[in-house]
Amino acid sequence: MAVLFGGQSPEHTVSRASAAGVLAHLDRARYEVRPVEITPAGRWLVYADGGATPGAACPAERPAGSPGGTLAEIAAALAGVDVVFPVLHGSAGEDGTVQGLLETIGLPYVGCGVAASAVGLDKAVTKAVLQACGLRIAPGVTLSPDRPAPDRAERARLGLPVFVKPARAGSSIGVSRVTDEADLPAAVARARAVDGTVLVEAAVPGREVDVGLLQHPDGEVVAGPPLEIVLPDGDFFDGAHKYASARPPFRVPAALDQVTTALLQERARQVFTALGGHGLMRVDFFVRPGEEPVVNEVNTMPGMTASSQYPQMWAAAGLSYRAVLDVLVATAWSAGRRR
């Protein structure tokens, strides 16, 4: 099995952290693991299996200045591999590009396919698809690269506060919470430094609750226990909370009644179906009593550190991290044989 990590997106470091979680929990009695780093420059470097630390062992020596990302280098990295686990976040990895490469060369891989990966990473396209399927989303405005800001009517409709996000990025990179309209241009510029297309979304008051989905080899899609992100009023789940906190602010299972839990799990499965998901997905909601849940965001390759939401949800369901990985690999292998 090749475990791909790193990548050419701003989430390179986040991917390395997720890959450390995967590498630490894969069963070495079942899998021969080959860590493969995609460097920020696009090179594919093969490492000895360093266990929990991606790239702990140095790759084979290469001549200085040798080209990276060539087809020959990629072919060498994947030679003899039966299945690939692309633990990649963000552009050039989670967006269907690597998935398309693996489809072309006929290698089974963990996670969503080309179309679901491409749509899932693009928040604007995701919102359009989900709205067309009757799912509730936050009011917002999409700013194409040639639009500097929402117009006056749009600003009045959205009100304050608003969240400003790059359309195609994750890990809260480039995201701002804006409470003063004077700060909006700077927030748009910050998001646009990450992606040319920017979303400006109305803040949705309510509890932030996530649901993880896991597909088994027989095709059954199971929703895990909802996880609530518990933060002080006015705060949001930014990069510091996600990656710098020793104790992420999670409550799992979330303190919800059975009806609300079942509704969230059903809506999460509907999102999975609408996007054509495969293998795994995490769907994030805003929840208010007596109202239809609002879909906030979708992650086709959620964070996979041991303390990330996705493994924590399944641990609360009684499924160990190792067991989750076994299901993901079996589902990928089964799908690959059916193509």
From TrEMBL:
Q: Which GO terms describe its molecular function?
A: ATP binding; D-alanine-D-alanine ligase activity; metal ion binding
List of residues binding Mg(2+) 2? E297, N299
Q: Does the keyword Ligase apply?
A: yes
Q: Which reaction does it catalyse?
A: 2 D-alanine + ATP = D-alanyl-D-alanine + ADP + phosphate + H(+)
**Mind listing the UniProt keywords for this protein, alphabetically?**
ATP-binding, Cell shape, Cell wall biogenesis/degradation, Cytoplasm, Ligase, Magnesium, Manganese, Metal-binding, Nucleotide-binding, Peptidoglycan synthesis
* Residues that bind ATP: 123, 163-165, 171-172, 201-208, 296-297
* Sequence positions that bind Mg(2+) 1: D284, E297
Q: Which family does it belong to?
A: Belongs to the D-alanine--D-alanine ligase family.
- What protein is this chain from? D-alanine--D-alanine ligase
